[in-house]
Amino acid sequence: MTKTRRIIAAALAVLTMALSFAGCSNAATESAAESENSAAASEAGSAESPSDAKESDKKFTVGICQLVQHEALDAATQGFKDVLIEKLGEDNVTFDEQNAQGDSATCTTICNLFVSSNVDLILGNATPALQAAYTATDTIPVLGTSITHYGTALDIKDWKGYSEMNVSGTADLAPLDEQAKVVKELFPDKTTVGILYCSAEANSKYQFDTIKPYLEDEGYTVKEYTFSDSNDVAAVTTTACDECEVLYIPTDNTAASNTGIIDNIAAPKNIPIVTGEEGMCSGCGVATLSISYYDLGRETGEMAYEILKEGADISTMEIRYAPTTKKYDKERCEALGITIPDGYEAIVKEEAAE
Q1: Which has more pLDDT, 275 or 12?
Q2: Closest CA relative to residue 134, chosen from 112, 103, 159, 106
Q3: pTM, entire model
Q4: Ordered alpha helix ranges (H), the chain
Q5: Domain check: are 161 and 228 in the same one?
Q6: Taken in order 147, 94, 69, 289, is the CA torsion positive or negative?
Q7: Cα separations in angstroms, 194 against 222, 246, 280
């Protein structure tokens, strides 16, 4: 090989080695860059992946409109709140709780404010509160509790058990045919039953229309006594006690707020009263086929959780109910000489419990 050829060959060898090193260097650089990009993407993904954590930490505001303060409605509201606090966490749910003090117009004002505040869900506790809530909005979910009959409350004639709009909830109506049987079981020898209720409450009228034929089937003559508001309670109750042997009071918010007045009139006249729920029975009754309003509220809270966290479609959620229990007021039954048959549970009053 000539000297010139040796020089050329050596130069080619050096050039080949340089190109080889450059290729390795580029590959290493690209590999490192890819590793860095992958790590950055992984970090970004893990930083964004808290979508689940963010979702679990989402905070909700729930508006509560309660028609009036009395034992049954208070218990339903408490049960509702307890479930949402338990399931969402105390820091993740805020309650804007308002009481309308028995005024339907105030319910409307309260619910309109809830809508303006864009709350996540509204609870209407008692029929006028529910009616005000669903009238105020057709987009925010509205749950009712302590409602007797949703078809009546929502003015839906072809009631299917669900509303097909932004409303659902729980009902407090114990079977009215069974209520009539309680009257018959306790007072088989009586002949006249007066039904006392507020004419301004549509669900009370519904209960009167429903239970009246059941009582008539049991052999009673049934008379209707209505008051328009709290101002008429005493006068109407007095008339009913003078004309009837037994009174029946359905689940009625006005009556529930005035049990003391009713008892003060009925007790001296020895007129027994069967009521539609336990709170009223404690206040003026001898017996009831009742539900636990606290449990009813808890069931409503479960429905709220399903809507807020699980995306349940409120328009197809069927109305839910609570189980019933026969209960009696021991002191009032003893005072009137009423013997309670087996199968009834004595009402435990707060004073006794303390």
Answers
A1: 275
A2: 112
A3: 0.73
A4: 3-48, 51-56, 71-88, 104-116, 127-136, 150-153, 176-186, 202-217, 233-243, 253-256, 259-266, 278-284, 293-310, 330-336, 350-353
A5: no
A6: positive
A7: 6, 6, 16
Please indicate, yes or no, whether residues 197 and 341 belong to a single structural domain of this protein. Answer: yes
Mean pLDDT along residues 83-106: 97
Give the contacts of 145 (CB within 8 A, at least 6 positions apart).
Answer: 76, 77, 80, 123, 124, 125, 169, 170, 172, 296, 297, 300
**84 and 207 housed in the same domain:** no
**Are residue 149 and residue 186 in the same domain, yes or no?**
no
3-class DSSP state of 157: coil
Range of the domain at 248: 176-290+325-353
Task: Please check whether residue 144 lies inside any domain of the structure.
Answer: yes
What is the full DSSP assignment across 200-215? T-HHHHHHHHHHHHHH
Amino acid 86: pLDDT: 98
Per-residue pLDDT reduced to its tens digit, 274-308: 999 999 999 999 999 989 999 999 999 999 999 99
Q: Residue type at 320?
A: R
Tens digit of pLDDT for each residue in 133-148? 999 999 999 999 999 9
Q: How many domains does the chain have?
A: 2
Residue 85 sits in the same domain as residue 137: yes
26 pLDDT higher than 90: no
Whether residue 86 is found in the same domain as residue 187: no
Residues 276 and 302 in one domain: no
Q: Which residue carries 């529930």 as its tokens? A: 256
